[in-house]
Amino acid sequence: MKRSEINAIMAEAEAFMAAFGFVLPPFAYWTPDDMLARKDAARAIIDGRMGWDITDYGQGRYAEMGLFLFTLRNGRLADLQRGGGMCYAEKLLISKKNQLSPMHRHYLKAEDIINRGGATLAVELYGSAPDGSFDGDAGGRVMCDGIARDFAPGDVLRLAPGESVTLMPGDWHAFWGEGGDVLIGEVSTVNDDETDNWFREPIGRFAAIEEDVAPTHLLVSDYARWL
C-alpha cells in the first residue's frame, strides 16, 4: 500500500468514527516526531501495539480485502498467563461495503465483535478440526448478545447496529460490511496480532508500505522500524 493511501484512509476513518460519536485517545493524533520524542513515556503504547492499523493482508486490493483498525487499549500477556491483571483489549474497526476480512481464527483470543453503527455486519462462520485447522464440514455454537446460537458450516450471521457475536478460540470467521460501511467494536482478551492470527489461505496480516509521502501518523507495524 502507498503511504498516501494510508494517510487518506486515516482521515476518512476519523471522520466516520466521529459521525457515531467516537473520539480517539490523545496519542492517536501524535505525529511521527511526537511519537519519537515521547517513546520512553509511551512505552506501554508501543509495546502493546496500540494505535493505527491498516491492512490489505499483503494482497494489494484494499477495497476488496482489507480492514481498518485502531487498538485503543491492550493488556499484558504476562497478566493473562498468571490469571489476573489487565487481561483485556479493545479496538475500533471499520469494514467497508463488501470489503472482506478473510477467513481466520485465533488460538488464544476470545472476542466480542459488535456492530457499533452503520450498515449490516456479515460474519461467516466455520468450526475447527480436532487439531484446530479449518474444517469445511464443521459447525459450532456462538453467543449472540447472551443467547446461544448454533451454526452450520458456512452460515452467515447478519448483525444490525447494536448486535454482537462472541467468538471463542477455534471459531473460524470472515466478515464484511453488507449494504454499506460498518463501525465495529472489538472487546477481547489480550491481543497479539503478530502471532495469534491464523488464516485459512497463505496471506499476511500486515501491509507492505511504499513510502511515497511522509506518514501522518505511524501504524503499529511502523513502530519497530521508526522508533
From TrEMBL:
Task: Tell me one GO molecular function of this protein.
Answer: D-lyxose ketol-isomerase activity
Q: What class of enzyme is it?
A: isomerase
- The EC number(s) given in the record are 5.3.1.15
Cofactor needs: Mn(2+)
Asked if Manganese is a keyword of the record, the answer is yes
Q: Which UniProt keywords apply?
A: Carbohydrate metabolism, Isomerase, Manganese, Metal-binding
Q: Which reaction does it catalyse?
A: D-lyxose = D-xylulose
Instruction: Identify the Gene3D superfamilies for this entry.
Output: Jelly Rolls
Question: Do you know which InterPro entries this protein is assigned to?
Answer: D-lyxose_isomer (IPR010864), EcSI_cupin (IPR047581), RmlC-like_jellyroll (IPR014710)
Q: Which family does it belong to?
A: Belongs to the D-lyxose ketol-isomerase family.
- What protein is this chain from? D-lyxose ketol-isomerase
Organism the protein comes from: Roseicyclus persicicus
